[in-house]
């Protein structure tokens, strides 16, 4: 059975290259490709792909926002981020939003096809440098340190939204507070949890929620 795939990429030359790669594989079926986020939001749930190849830096939105919006509507779809971003914040935001794979755009054609097959089979493919970042982020956060339950209710709400992949501006909108207030809460969260970045805070949250 063919793996049915859709692409969300706003750079047209890149989108064409990706489409050609998918079409060249005998066991892959390209259902759709979108350059506009509004079209992706409207039509992807109807397309019902097995795998969505998703860029992060999109016009009008981000791939992380799209994944967070679409995953509840498409629980059976696997979202594979395909991006140039390799910093911890983007990685953890994407995974928290519902992505199950993260591949850098310098991946070879063979690596891309292998990642598509892996994610369709229940795996979580990642570029080697991304996997190392994920492992190191978890290793850097000791579990016995001050816990999430020591945060105030509002701080826990902010951390919960961070863990779900929300951006600072979106957290402010969700909680009805200003951007500077969000920054203040996040600084307090870092201090109480003895961490130094969003990814470490998320890692600690996930560890202590197990």
Report on the structure:
- With 210 residues, the protein is of the alpha/beta class.
- It has 2 domains: 3-137, Rossmann fold, CATH 3.40.50.2300; 148-208, Arc Repressor Mutant, subunit A (Orthogonal Bundle), CATH 1.10.10.10.
- Helices cover 53% and strands 15% of the residues.
- Helix 4 (88-97) links the parallel strand 6 and strand 7.
CA radius of gyration: 18 Å
Structural class: alpha/beta
pLDDT < 50 runs, ≥5 residues: 141-145
**In CATH, what is the class of the largest domain?**
Alpha Beta
What percent strand?
A: 5-15%
* Largest pleated sheet: 5 strands, parallel
* Total domains: 2
The CATH superfamily of the largest domain is Response regulator
Helix content: 40-55%
Shape: globular
CATH topology of the largest domain, anyone?
Answer: Rossmann fold
Write down how many β-strands occur, each being a DSSP E stretch of 2 or more residues: 7
What is the string of helix and strand elements?
Answer: EHEHEEEHEHEHHHHHH
CATH architecture heading of the largest domain: 3-Layer(aba) Sandwich
Q: What is the CA–CA distance across the termini? A: 36 Å
For the biggest β-sheet, the strand order reads 2-1-3-6-7
Mean pLDDT: 88
Number of helices: 10
List the helices and strands and how they pair.
Elements lengths: L2 E6 L3 H13 L3 E7 L2 H11 L3 E4 L2 E2 L2 E2 H8 L7 E6 L4 H10 L3 E4 L4 H12 L7 H12 L13 H11 L4 H8 L3 H15 L4 H11 L2
Parallel strand pairs: 1-2, 1-3, 3-6, 6-7
Antiparallel strand pairs: 4-5
Helix pairs in contact: 3-4, 4-10, 7-9, 7-10, 8-9
């Amino acid at each position: 059975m063919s793996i049915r795939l859709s692409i969300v990429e706003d750079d047209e030359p890149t989108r064409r290259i990706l489409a050609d790669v998918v079409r060249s594989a005998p066991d892959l079926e390209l259902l759709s490709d979108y350059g506009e986020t509004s079209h992706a939001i409207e039509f992807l749930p109807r397309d019902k792909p097995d795998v969505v190849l998703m860029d992060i830096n999109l016009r009008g939105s981000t791939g992380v926002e799209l994944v967070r919006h679409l995953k509840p509507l498409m629980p059976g779809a696997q979202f594979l981020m395909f991006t140039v971003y390799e910093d911890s914040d983007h990685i953890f935001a994407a995974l928290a939003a519902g992505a199950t794979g993260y591949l850098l755009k310098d991946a070879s054609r063979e690596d891309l096809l292998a990642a598509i097959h892996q994610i369709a089979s229940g795996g979580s493919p990642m570029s080697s440098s991304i996997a190392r970042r994920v492992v190191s982020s978890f290793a850097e956060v000791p579990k016995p340190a001050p816990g999430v339950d020591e945060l105030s209710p509002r701080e826990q709400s902010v951390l919960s939204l961070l863990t779900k992949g929300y951006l600072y501006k979106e957290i402010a909108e969700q909680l009805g507070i200003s951007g500077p207030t969000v920054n203040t809460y996040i600084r307090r969260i870092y201090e109480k949890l003895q961490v130094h970045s969003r990814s470490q805070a998320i890692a600690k949250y996930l560890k202590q929620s197990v």
